[in-house]
Amino acid sequence: MKTLGIDIGSSSVKVSLLDVATGEGAGSVTLPSAEMPIKAVQSGWAEQAPKMWWDYACEGIKQLTKDLTPDDIKAIGITYQMHGLVCLDKQGEVLRDSIIWCDSRAVSIGAEAQKQIGHEKCLVNLLNSPGNFTASKLAWVKRNEPEIFEKVASFMLPGDYILYKLSGDISTTSSGLSEQILWDFKEDKRADFVADYYGINKTTIPDDLPSIGIQARVSAEAARLLGLKEGTPIAYRAGDQPNNAFSLNVMNPGEIAATGGTSGVVYGVTDIPKADRLSRVNTFLHVNHSSGAPRYGVLLCINGTGILNAWTKRMVASDMSYDQVNELAASVPAGSEGLVMIPFGNGAERMLENRYTGAEISGIDLNRHGKGHLLRAAQEGIAFAFRYGVDIMRETGLKAEVMRAGKANLFLSPLFRKTLATICNVRIELYNTDGALGAARGAALGAGLYKNREEAFASLRKLEIVEPDPSIKDALETAYAEWKKELELQLAK
Q1: Which of 57, 135, 277, 464 has a Cα at 20 to 30 A from 421?
Q2: Is the whole model's pTM more than 0.90, yes or no?
C-alpha cells in the first residue's frame, strides 16, 4: 500500500512514493535533470508554463509506478511553490504563463492597496500587506492585460492547477486563500473585501477546503493517462513552506522548520495571530488550522538564497559536483577572508520591505581570492541572510532555538549547516524527509490510512544534530557585520 506525493517547485518537479506500512520512502524521481527555466522578460519578472509542471509530474508518476498496479496507489498529495497565479478560461485552458512566487511586478500594486484599504485593516484582518501576493498579481493582469483578464473564469495556485489536471475539479484550500491574501483572519473567512477592492469577480475564486482530507478524486481521463485507478483520492494539498513544516511534524506553537531550496525559508508555528507592522515576515494559515485550535505559520522567505549557490557553482565550478564544491569551500577560512556576497538577486525581498536590491559581490582581493573563496562566500552570504531574517522574527516574539530541516538542498552542505547554526545560534535537527515525501505522508493521513498524526510520523527519523561551533563564531560575527554594512549601503541608495 503506497501513496504518491507531487512537489511542484520552480527549479524542479519531484514525485515520491511512501510505503504506508513502514512510513519510509519507496522511491522518488526529480525532473528535469537541469533546473526548469524561468522566463524573465523584464527585470524582476518570473514566469513558468503550467503545462511544463504537469508534463514533468506525469513523467515522474509514470516512472515511479511502472512496476506497480493501479490498486497499489491509495492516495495522492500535492505540494507546490506558493503565491503563483494560474488563470483558466471557461474551457479550463491556461490563458497565460503563470506569474510565479519570485516575480516582483505587483509590488507597487500591493503597496497602493495597503494605503487604500488601510494599513491597520490590512494588519488586523489580513495580518499582511497585500504585497506581491497572488491577488495583487491578478490585479496586475487586470491593469496590463485586460483582454486576458476578461477571459478569466477561475484563477488558482500552482497546486490547485495540478489537482484540476488530476481530477477536473477546481478548488483551493483555506491555507491557500491566506497565501493569496484572500483570507480574513479576524473574521475567519474569505477576505472578499480584497477581491472587491481589486475588482476581482468573486465567482472566479475557487471554493476552499481543508488542507488535510479528501479534496478530489482522480478522473477517468487522468487515470488512463497515468496508469492510476479512477477515483483514487487526492487527500492533501499545501504550499511548499507549510508542507515543509508538516513534513517535519512542525504543527504546534513554538516549533520551527527551515528549508534552503531556490529560496530560503524559516517557518514557525504560533496560535496567536500577530502581524509584523512592516510585513517583513508574513503570517498564513497552517495546514492544521481550525477555528477551535488556531494554527498560524509565520513565514520568513528569502528569494535569493539557493539560487546564489547554484549560480556561483555554474559560473566558477560547473565541472564539479556539489560535494566537491562543498569540500573546496570548506578549505577557505570562516569569513572567506573578507569576500562578501549579498544574495538578493532573485526578485523583491519581503524582509527588505519589498525592495529589490540585486545581488552583489564585494571585497575581492585579486591576489588572494579564488574559486573556493567565491563558493564559501556564497554559502556564508546565504546564512547571513537567514540570520538577518531570524533577527526580525525574534523581534516579533517568535522563539528560534531549534530548527528542523530535511537533509536536502542547501542542508546537504556540512559547511552551510555549521555556518547557519553558528551565526543564528540555533541547534539544527536534520530529518529523513523532503517536500514530496511529506505530501505523500499527508495524503496517507488525509485519506485515513493513518489513524492519527502520531501514527503518521512514527517513522520520522532524526538523522543529525548540528550545534553552533564556538571556534568559528567570532570570524563569522565579524564577517556578518561587514555583510550587514554592505546590505545597509544598498538599502540606503
Answers
A1: 277
A2: no
